[in-house]
Amino acid sequence: MRVMKRHAVLALLVLVPVAVDLCVPLYNRDPPELFGLPFFYWFQTIWLFVSAAFYMAYARLKERQSW
Amino acid sequence: MVGPDVTTGFAVLFVMFIVLGFYGKYWRRGDLNHVHEWSLAGRKLGTTLVFFLIGADLYTAYSFVAIPSGVFAKGALYFFAIPYVMLTFGVALVTMPRLWTLAREKGYITASDFVRERFGSPALAVMIAITGIVAELPYIALQIVGMQSVLTVMLAGTANAQIVGEISLLIAFIILAAFTYTSGLRGATLTAVFKDVLIWITVLAVVVAVPLSIGGFGHAFSQVKANYLTLPSSLVPGYSTLILGSALALYLYPHAINGVLSSESANKLRKSTALLPLYGVGLAVLALMGVLVFAVPGAMNFLSQFPESSRGILVVPSLILYTMPGWFSGIALLGIFVGGLVPAAIMAMAQANLLTRNIIKEFRPNLSDASEIRITKISSTVFKFVALGFVFLVPATYAISLQLLGGVLIAQVLPAVLCGLYVKSLKKLPLIAGLLVGIWSGIYMVEAANSFGPLTSSLFGTPLGPIYIAVIALAANLAIAFGGSYIKRR
Fold first, then answer.
1. I want to staple B282 with a disulfide (CB 3.0 to 4.6 A). Which of A28, B87, B203, B243 is the partner?
2. Contact (CB<8Å) B217/A36
3. Cα Rg for chain A, rounded, in angstroms?
4. How many domains is chain B built from?
5. Is B467 strand, coil or helix?
6. Residues spanned by the domain of B47
7. Looking at the predicted complex, does its ipTM rise above 0.85?
8. Secondary structure of B135-147 as H, E, C letters
9. CATH number (domain holding residue B199)
């Protein structure tokens, strides 16, 4: 059971950022703007940081698991 | 013609680049007569160095040239490069450590090495090697186009600009070939770090200075049409499939796998991959230059001297030249210039590994280690000059078109390489059939989508809207590979 839960967490850590990424209508809008940038541009840029955090969590968890 | 303030910085840094490239031979010494020492730097690269090396693969002249040029000409659609890099590292994070572990155990240097042993099929391995070599060639050519754009901007207005530019490129390539020959991946890694430092300085300076000098991003966005602000809804399916298809394809390119296998451990590989989306931030800034340039009248005037089709590739260097102080432009332009050279070296190295190990050795199994490394070194030199010759002979726009086709082709090795890592039931014959159908249908659709004329579009009109061709061809390929394997099992 614990193993399954760990796998589910690992899968979500990758699937969540990826799913948001592929749901284009979610972020395909102009307002609200940030520093004059349409939402479309700044959201995708900020999402890079968010996904790096998700991925890093995956890498850390995986490291502990294999050990 | 640019002033001496620009050229001095450019020249001084280029000399430093050459020194680093040759010094690579002595860095973390190993016996460079072994293939894994020469082309994988002894599999000893840690988290940071793999981050830089793979980052250098990704952050190529392609990103400085093709992406801003696409945003400049077509608007928001070309911003797909940003979610695409985010997604590609998710794919790599899961799959590549597994490939790394197998490669370490069995001594694989290329993806074809893995496929040959996994499916017991030399034929499939050779086909995958050929696909890799062919898809890589226009990618190298594109690097050269990027370097050419820097020289074009620097030499604009001088006599014999074209000849001087071509000779400069030739000299740069001879130097590059000489240090990759002696230093292998070590030279490429050191120069990759050097290049990345320059690029990051440039990107950070641009993102602060340019919006300030033109009165904010909003000023630039107020000068462009609606399809620059957001994506027209008809292009949404195209956008998401471009993200998906390119993300699946990137880590199938031989040079990306080469970078992965040079890592020291699977855990270090995971960490550097997890951090690589941060690299995309720089890419986003560069892509935005395609819009920012509309608010810089000096750069727009300068661009209007050139024919419309070649303006796009000059956007980034001319924007830098017209908004930054001269000495800084020299640094930034050199960053872009070596930003093409370094990946070109890694790509040619990966092609050479495929040619030697997976094609020549297939027919000459008794090749000694010494001959193997010699042939690899020589062919990596040859591949560089083939790409250079290609750029001299055909217009720059062709290189971009063929790069488009290369992406469609390389995606077709996914069932054997990535699915092969996980799915036990896959069989070689269905994989071969799927690969052939994927390649054939991919080429056909690219031709049909462009009415059998010059290649500019990689989207194919379907009832669901325009869709990235690599994804359609890959779907057919996967259906055949899995369907065929299922039938054969019964």
1. B203
2. yes
3. 15
4. 1
5. strand
6. 4-412
7. yes
8. HHHHHHHHHHHHH
9. 1.20.1730.10
